[in-house]
# Entry
Amino acid sequence: MNVLIVDDDRTNLLILATLVRRIDDAEPVTMDNPFDAVAWLRDNSPDLILLDQMMPGMDGLTLLRHIRADSRLDTVPVVMITADIATGIRLQALEEGCNDFLTKPILVPEVQARMRNLLALRQSRILLRDRAALLSAEVERVTAALQRQGEELVHRLSCAAEYRDPETGAHLERMSRYSRIIAETAGYDGDFAAQLMAAAPMHDVGKIGIPDMILLKPGRLTPEEMTVMRQHTTIGHGILAGSDIPLMRLAAEIALTHHERYDGNGYPNGQAGDDIPVSGRIVAIADVFDALTSTRPYKPAWSLAKARSHMQKAGGQHFDPVYLDAFLSSWDQVCEIYETFADKQAEPSLDEV
# Structure
């Protein structure tokens, strides 16, 4: 531990330096010129500072102000040594950040006791700071591990849903990226946009619970079959809800709300406007657009222009107009994703060659 001593009296410097060396692990740094001390402090951070009040060129109060103006030194204890016992000087020093006082002529036992106490306090603060840093690093590590676990669960459950609904192709890849673009363009921070992209592929995980005769039926569903199909929202929410992992909670929210409509005519709960979570309003746009531009058993893929026109007409009805504008204003990125992650064409069978 370094103890900086600033005093224009060389005798005082010698006495104080001797007393510092009597303290275990303490080493004095002595200076008889306060300007030299200011220069030294630019690159060094002692554990305790002892400074004289009455010095030529710069008094102790002025030097104290320099010390406290440096954020690196704001917790370093400072003891002012003064022959002036006036209350005004002491109050001013306290207001400037002085921690303690020594009165000349100094008493050796008093000086040693005060230095030991202040150095012990300094060590305790450093240990607390280091412990806080370690705890912060551990929290970050655990949080990152939970994030990875959540992402792995999302990936595995999304793969399971794809096995039940093989017609989706690269749907999950595209719609999750569309969702991220909407969030970023709408002004959300990168963390939320990334979380949304990671959770969006879980939107249809509830289809695991839909019978094959309905899920894989070629052609349109009857009203009764549609009622069963719509249950995938609540089934998906039931699978994902209640997790301690934030990503899974977000995925549960998306699974439940991505078929709600801005005008309140969606399902399963008929929510409207801002009552629908942001995640559900964003994913609804990405999901519908990709469904329109993808081939399904009951329809051919729409052109991008036709899908865009349809989406524009549905603003304020099916879709939140703010997020729809964010989507359409990023049209170049949308087209790039569409091309990059296009569905692969099936290879022709030997009978077709």
